[in-house]
Amino acid sequence: MIKVLQISKYYYPFIGGIEQVARDISRSLDRNIFQQKIICFNEDSRAEGYECHRKQTVHDFVDGVEVIRCGYSVKISSQSLSASYGRELQKLMDGFRPDIVILHYPNPFVTRLLLKYKDRDFRLMVYWHLDITKQRFLKCFFVRQNRALIDRACVIAGATPVHLETSEYSSHFSGKKHILPYMIDEGALIPTPEEKQKAGEIRKAAGSKVIGFFIGRHVPYKGLRYLIEASEKMGDEDIHFFIAGEGELTDKLKALAGNDRKIEFVGRISDSEKRAYLCASDIICFPSVTRNEAFGLALAEGMYSGKPAVTFNIKGSGVNYVSLDGVTGIECPCGDSEAYAGALKKLCSDSALRREYGKNARRRVLDNFTGESFRKNINSLLSDIIENR
Predict the structure, then answer these.
(1) Cα separation of 38 and 65, whole Å?
(2) I want to staple 158 with a disulfide (CB 3.0 to 4.6 A). Which of 164, 271, 325, 362 is the partner?
(3) CATH superfamily of 2-183+370-387
(4) Which residues contact 111 (CB under 8 A, 6 or more apart)?
(5) CATH of domain 186-368
(6) Global confidence as pTM
(7) What burial letters (b/e) apply to 302-337, b meaning 16+ CB within 10 Å?
(8) What's the pLDDT tens digit per position in 156-214?
(9) Is 84 exposed, middle or buried (0-12, 13-18, 19+ CB in 10 A)?
């Protein structure tokens, strides 16, 4: 058996983009070939059968794989600091003795701990999700550490070519780059008859209007203010926007929307409700504006549902690799709400174009971002890593 240790910042039941990718890897690996363990920080979260508390260090199992959750009390610049992490990592390196370590980057404080074992006999794959961008001053302290990490790795994986080509460390990735696109859960996106009926009710409530749908956290990089500004510029255009989700900006966004009757905030919705809204919608509104949006799983899910997308051109993000301008949707200059409004108007007035882009969007996801493709890619990659050691 090939022993694989995955290092993620957090893990299910905590829900985040990187955490979902880590779980996708865990569930995709062939259990007849790979034996797995996962180490992460604990975080307050809950789901059916799980209740986690950030201050506790616990061992439990998710999908039959042992997860070591290290408790913490302090965060510095969004990075958790744990007194137990070093001990738990040492136990794994000495006792489990992994053949392959998969580190999900960025995770700078854990990177420092892992590099203490750089002389050990394991193969290192770094899944480079994004550069550190928010903490502009702090990231300067990690330059030497990151170069040491890259030197130690045998593979630097990225979800799209953009991840690897636009990183400030891309010149150091030479000979180690590997594209490993994220996946969507197709089974979780197929609407039931009841959900299709709910979709019909949503459409009926919107009347004859085109439906634009957004789902995601209400945080700055999601760019919702640009969608609201675009709606204002559209005047009495025959469109209705459903905005799902919530976050730190929800109240400000509602105030910004004011009395715009085209915009309806529907709050946090269940997976069942999400399927109904995706089924009912005509356009996927994805107005993210920074490379913090590294890929756009919600975008890919909407495209799988056969809907065209309106996006911004985000330098250094994989969003514009997922949805292709003029093929699966329309791409606008980043932060240009006037152009965004124009793209929405174009799709509103041309049902044939919506169908064409929607058909292309679903095909792009089926060809590139399915669970089947991901399982094949990750099992092949890790097998190659061992064969070439």
Answers:
(1) 7
(2) 164
(3) Glycogen Phosphorylase B; (3.40.50.2000)
(4) 103, 105, 142, 145, 146, 149
(5) 3.40.50.2000
(6) 0.85
(7) bbbbbbbbbbbbbebbbbbbbbbeeebbbbbebbbb
(8) 999 999 889 989 999 999 899 999 999 999 999 999 999 999 999 999 999 889 999 99
(9) middle
